[in-house]
Amino acid sequence: MPMTRLLFIFAAMAAMLALPMQAQASNLYAGQYGEGGTWNIYELVTGNQTFWSGAYGLIPGLTDPTGGAATGHLVTITDDFENSFLTGLITGSTWIGLTDREGVGDGTWTPYEGNWQWVDDTLFIYSNWGSGEPNDAGGGEDAGELTTGGLWNDNEIGWGVDEPVPPTLYPGTSTQEDFIVRPYLIEWEVRSATQPVAGVDFPSTRTDPPYPVIPVQLFPTTPMPGPNGAAGLLGVREVRGMGNTANVLLAINIIQGMGGTWYDGQVATLDLADPDTNGAGGPVVGTTPIPFLSNNSGVDDDSIQTIIKGRVYVPAGKGGDWSVRFHSDDGFALRFLDVNGNPVPFTGQGELGQLDLAGTLTYPLPTGDSNSRGVITLADNAVYDIECVAFENAGGAFWEMTMMQGDYRTMVVPPNTLVYQRGWLPLGGTSIEEQTFAGPAPVKLVSAARVTSITNQSAYDITVTPTNVEDARAGNIFPDEWVFDGTVQTIALRNTGGGGAGSAALQVSGLNNHFPCNTSGGDVNDFETGITGRLRIDDGDGVAGETLQLTFAMFSDDNCHFEIDGVDFTNVYDFNGNTISRLSDIDFDGTLGIEYNAPTGNANTFGLITIDEGEYDFQGYTLEIGGGEFYEVWAAVGDYLSTGFVPGAFWPITTVGLTSQLIEASTALQLVDPTWTPGGDNADFNGDNIVDGNDFLIWQIGLGLTGQTNNDNGDANGDGTV
Questions:
Q1: What is the DSSP annotation of 161-221?
Q2: Contacts with 290 (C-beta within 8 Å, 6 or more apart), sequence order
Q3: For the segment 410-446, what is each residue's pLDDT rounded down to a tens digit?
Q4: pLDDT band at 369; cut points 50, 70, 90
Q5: Are 494 and 513 in contact (CB under 8 A)?
Q6: Is the separation of the CB atoms in 408 and 638 below 8 Å?
Q7: Is the dihedral of CA 29, 32, 33, 34 positive or negative?
Q8: Strands 513-514 and 492-494: what pairing?
């Protein structure tokens, strides 16, 4: 027997003899990530660190730490929420239950070289590999580990040649791999309907998936520090120099601690962004966002915590339910306070929004798009103070808040009508009237389009996607468990969890579809998708065979492409301010399509084409690298490259026979001075929430200084005070 093999065996025996029969020096945590939204126990073992194969062999001999009969295994991770939760527990790289070593496990999904699987037979869909990983460095890295940054890495597993069994699918692939000692995470399948153990830092209050982790109460009982707003303005403080934060509670603590470098100022709306990474801002407002106060031009604005404060006035007759939408990269927490400083709780939430026990609306974790909704009841003729904390760790960055009167967590869509939720308006914005536009849509799907998604893809170049989709559909190259097929009635796809808000300009109710690979309801990363089908182009004027000039709008996170077979796009423009969009022959068939070949929060790309009425085949492609994902294509008759998206002109591409568009009316709530109260002795005689020369003129009239009187005591507004 070779000496190296003897040394390997002796080292393994010594390491195994050092392991106790029950894990010691460990901490228990409860997380609501079990089957069906139940609670499991997570045991982080730090005091008896070992190699991957050692932990894998040890766990079957351990017992349920709660005294029950639950089985344990190296942890499996199925979405961004669980990954973030676990990342917040560890202090160094830690083994997880992921391997591509043949012979591990005996379930349906068999690992083999290059085919990573979970040890408990959970289908491997979600992944969060670091850049260039897994890379099998040195010819043998078959063990998965979670790093402190939340990304995954492959490392050496601690088995010898042909262990644990000689591979049969791919002989010779189970090589000798060294002992790398790490802490490890055990997941105990307690599957409790309620939180089963104490000691959890962030118990969840959500009762349906997905399940991010939030504390009992995020904000303190006292007001947060930071500059106040003014009439028409919000106060903003951005904190730099305090590093990244794992969740919004830590961001709140940083702001309360008054450390770091402060950047104070005022802004007109809560619509801020890093112009270098998110030039289009959030997905709702549709106008150029305000740059961060601490923006460093030309580089990513990372590691920021911010507090945004202001006072909002609800006019008489406008009380009742109000809906709030919040989009951000990364997480946030938002609360309303009455004039006495008491929290006014949100009464419900939607999308990814969560509520803590005090009724604070939040998405507490790092994400590409928090994509949260909440409903709150506000009184007539009343003022409320708003406090919002948001944070940005790395990558794209934006914070956007809009409101609309009513409960808009869900919507009922009239038949054959496209409903724009255009009523989502920023604080201090302009109220709008209801608008309708006649159809029909100029571009329609002839029939349902085919969609194919391929998971476990970390490519950063959209040009490889057409070939991969063709291979996947032909059954070549990719394992069957990586390939997901489906059909859609509208070219509007999104992720279920982790964001993916849809169109940058407007939110459409009732037409979005989920990517076929998103079967768990969480945020799926690292996949590529192709969508193909047939279009019918007809402007609906009854004249056949016309030549039309059309603008197509493509929205996606991240890289994306769209083309119509046999007809070239002639020009392209993106509204991100970085001119990455281009014309491209992605599949080398001689046809130019529109393309945005870079990671982004929203491609926001518009292309111009001249085309005869008729039917044509089309192809669309998108990559998802991380964060929320969506892909939408809209069309309008005419040239809109200089204007971008125009409500009423653009139509989604769908099989639905849309005959009209409805843009709902909405009232925008106004920002007022933080000392202003309705009916107070504040000299705002004309009720516009601003004390200025117009109020002075009314006051003069009331006193008879101009020879005219409304009454004999100067009480021009009739509230009993002057």
A1: TT-SS--SSSTT---------EEEEEEEEEEESS--SS--SS-----SS------S--S-S
A2: 267, 268, 269, 271, 272, 273
A3: 554 455 555 555 567 887 777 766 667 777 889 999 9
A4: confident
A5: yes
A6: no
A7: positive
A8: parallel
